[in-house]
Amino acid sequence: MTSTSQTLVATFGPDAQGHLVLLNHPTQSATAIDGWKSAVFGTPFMAAGLYIGWVATNGSRAGKQVPDWAIGIFAAMFFLGGLFFFVHGLLGVARKAAYQREAAQRPGEPWLYDFHWHREGIAFSAFDDMLKRLMAALVWTVFLIPFGWIGANEKGAWPFLVGAVFFGLLGLIFWYRWAAMLLDLLRYGNSYLTYDSFPYSLGGALRARLRSPHHVSAIDELTLTLRCVQEKYITTGSGQNRSTNVVCYELYKEVSTFNRDRLTGLAGNDISMEFRLPTDQPSTALVATPPTYWEIEAKGKARGADYQAFFLVPVYKRS
Question: What pLDDT is recorded for position 3?
Answer without folding.
Answer: 40
